[in-house]
Design goal:
It contains 3 helices and 11 strands. The strands form 2 sheets. Strands 1, 4, 5, 6, 7, 8, 9, 10 and 11 form a 9-stranded antiparallel sheet that branches. A two-stranded antiparallel sheet has the order 2-3.
């Protein structure tokens, strides 16, 4: 069997084969968790549709019928190890799996551009990613999880002639509450300590006070009393001298 035939069977028959394999596990004395059996059984046939969905700092909306909006929030990209898939959201769906798990998932239904380098995607010498808006992905695989999507903005080039230029630029959108920048200078705060020295704990030049020495407090109290007495004596002497001068 060729690889192309295997891939075709995987896309068309794998889901049905997996359901049959799990349901017949008891006859083979194999047991699987309940949540896995319910997950393989598939979601409900009814789904909820939403015009907008917010997640991970992004605000996604489905592609409107009129595309002359000032804001474009329906561009998405899914990055893999080898290929980046660029597309546009056409529907936002919430599917529900019945049973014990009661799992709900948000799916994006997308129209994908051709991901092949040189044909559908190219990188300019200035580092700008361009997408050929006339090339579509032939393979039918429209659904992705909302957690897989990152947001991009498609900006067309100014129209010079009668024919619209097919290549558009794709710009990555930073999610809210995240700022990407270039570190120009090293932080002033030291990150690591290269050398550790022992602190000199000599107390030769430091006056020591015994907090339990009660005599020191008594000496200070006696000194304050003597100062108060001398102050009163000085006031009495000055008052008597003034009285004697008045009498004369």
């Amino acid at each position: 069997m060729t690889e192309a035939r295997k891939e075709e069977m995987k896309q068309t028959q794998y889901a049905n084969w997996l359901k049959y394999y799990i349901k017949s596990a008891a006859s083979r004395q194999e047991h699987y968790p309940t949540w896995f059996e319910e997950l393989v059984g598939g979601p409900l046939s009814r789904a909820m549709a939403y015009p907008m969905y917010c997640t991970r700092g992004y605000v996604f909306i489905k592609r409107p019928g009129i595309t002359n909006r000032k804001t474009v929030n329906y561009g998405v990209v899914v990055r893999t190890d080898s290929i980046d898939y660029y597309g546009e959201i056409t529907d936002i769906l919430e599917v529900e799996y019945p049973g014990v798990i009661n799992l709900k998932c948000i799916l994006f239904k997308c129209d994908w551009y051709d991901p092949r380098v040189g044909r559908g995607v190219r990188l300019t010498k200035y580092g700008v990613t361009e997408i050929n808006s006339t090339k579509q992905l032939r393979k039918y695989d429209p659904f992705i999880l909302a957690s897989q999507a990152a947001q991009v903005c498609y900006i067309p080039y100014p129209q010079v002639g009668v024919r619209q230029y097919p290549w558009i630029t794709a710009h990555q959108i930073n999610p809210r509450s995240r700022v990407d920048g270039v570190k120009e200078k090293e932080p002033l705060q030291q990150i690591a300590v290269n050398e550790i020295t022992q602190v000199d704990q000599s107390v030769g030049d430091i006056p020591l006070v015994d907090i339990e020495n009660i005599e020191v407090e008594q000496i200070w109290e006696n000194a304050e009393d003597e100062e108060d007495g001398e102050e009163f004596e000085d006031q009495n002497d000055s008052a008597s001298s003034d009285y004697s001068s008045d009498s004369e």
